[in-house]
UniProtKB/TrEMBL annotation:
Residue stretches spanning the membrane: 6-28
Source organism, top-level taxon: Eukaryota
GO molecular function: metal ion binding; monooxygenase activity
Entry binding sites for heme: 444
Keyword flag Heme: yes
Keywords tagged on the record: Heme, Iron, Membrane, Metal-binding, Monooxygenase, Oxidoreductase, Signal-anchor, Transmembrane, Transmembrane helix
Main location: membrane
Species the sequence originates in: Forsythia ovata
Limits of the HpcH/HpaI aldolase/citrate lyase domain: 570-671
Protein name (Swiss-Prot/TrEMBL): Cytochrome
SUPFAM superfamilies (UniProt xref): Cytochrome P450, Phosphoenolpyruvate/pyruvate domain
PANTHER family: CYTOCHROME P450 71D8, OS08G0105600 PROTEIN
Family, as annotated: Belongs to the cytochrome P450 family.
Cofactor list: heme
Amino acid sequence: MDIQLPPFNFVTFLLFISFVSLLVKAGWKKSKHQRLPPSPWKLPLIGHLHHLVGTPSHRSLTNLAKKYGPIMHLQLGEVSAIVVSSRQIAKDVLKGHDVACADRPESIGMKIMWYDYTDIAFSPYNEYWRQMRKICIMELLSNKNVRAFGSIRVDEASRLLNSIQSSCGEPINLTDKVFSFTSAMTCRVTFGKVLKDKDTLIRLMKKGIALGGGLELADLFPSSKLLQVLSWNKHKLLKMRRQVDSILDFMINEHKNNMATTKKGNGELGSEDIVDVLLRLQQSGKLAIPITNDNIKAIIFDLFAAGTQSSSTTIDWAMAEMMKNPHVMAKAQAEIRQVVKEKGTVEDSDVQTLKYLKLVIKETFRVHPPFSVLPRACREEFEIDGYTIPLKTKVMVNNWALGRDPEYWDEPESFKPERFENNSIDFLGNNFEYIPFGSGKRFCPGMNFGLANVELPLAQLLYHFNWKLPQGMNPNDIDMTEAEGLTISRKNGLYLIPTPCNPSVGRFLKDVETQKSKNKYSEFPLSSSSPGHKKFNLKIISKKQSAAAIASSVQSQPLKARLKNGETLYGIFLLSFSPTLAEIADLSGYDFAVVDMEHGHGGIFDALPCLCALVSTNTAAILHLPESSATWAKKALDLGPQGIMIPMIDSRKSARKAISYCRFVPNSVRG
């Protein structure tokens, strides 16, 4: 959980006026008999807080752990905390002492926004929590209900696709569009419809989650009544909660009235939505601990935090990583288009067969877990690894560090979905180097709901569209800066250019996984001494242009600079139009590829599968045309033996529309 501190001048002021009273209090008391884990050096009053300023807390904690070990003690003002950064210690804490540290740390923001901790995520470990967790698993987000929400997911995914379709060819803020999808999805599941005040509610909840999910000065010095009164965020959060209350109270009363008059739920086709279920249980009189309207609102807040914020953040990270790793996107798209073929859309049932997409999502959770630090609080004293962990100690399991530990992960900073092939690591909290949904008593009960809200829309985005970066950007330019908050989201929006992919392309990709390799490759280098290196070009050429106009449109391409600098570009000569998924990944290492269309192939559409694969790996595709076409190209462009490079072929319309990238093909690869 990231720590958010007020501006320095305000911190200085509050520290000054509180200094005398705080030093007298018991914040620094420590039994001489306790053996705490190692710590970095600390300052009077603030303890180790200065070590966490300047970078996101999960990164600061990871850097400290490299020096002070996998279990570390920090004094955060008056709050005593331990930080866990290794698989074995995480297992000892979350499995061996699960109940001993099953509480959540207290926070002013969470107390306000989660209705005095009466939700599930931040409730103390007690009978109320056990009752509400059981309701969540059995009644709200059961596997049966998650499947029943499928029609809503498909409908909202269609709205997302239509929204993107209307902006094809232009840069769009995909981050915002995905967040709009997840918020609409959560609204319909919760309330049975998209609220007219949805945007206001989402804005307030999003801001409340950001403020309420961080720690502030008053949380670090809980004994100071003055800091409680002068809390940095308290008054903002109280105002926001009053606004949220007015919207949620209206919706709850509307549901009550509808249930009383129609005896039906407010969900799709008269079924129950989340609020209906909670009201039914509230009115049944069968609960051991009765629930109030405020309790219902706290559960709603949990749903929006997980179903909206976490799901959209995961999709956003996955798309950003695939844009940085085009070979991953190529494999994912090839798999989806092979499975879906000509159906025209991805259905929930299709998602279960998309093995590589599931690996992509797994890898996204590894490098970008929704919650960077899993917070616990000790209900009782316990010992671990020879150290004493006192009562009320805050326990922070650095989830982000576990997923990037080189002891457990090969090339941990690289995005490699294949690492999860043929191994048993899963989401269920039993592999402690990989616990994106937590583990033990506090394992996330909404995991299946969250996964479903990620898998289907991500599959739809990859099936229906090809994606490229705005002009002038390359994959290394994608901003992966993390934002501060309860979840690790990207700081800035992801702007991409979508182009529609005709679903019929799926038929060209059949057998892409089953085709066996048949000596498809011969390699050749292209250096500055190669003939024709000055003619590496980029230009969209209309079919209506004359030969002279086409010839005059040839412009030098940025790759020319690489050749001038003495760099050697590597190409590959392909004799097949049906590369396997593994072969597609291999292509990502080449700068260009020549596709032989001279021997027995009728037209450009026969090469579509291969071209789509090349485009997805950012490998320039050169068509080696039949003799008649090559002769025409030679005369029209006066470039000698030549090929025509197609940057994207995703429909018959785009195939007719343009020829681009004209350059020589070295004589060594001619037939």
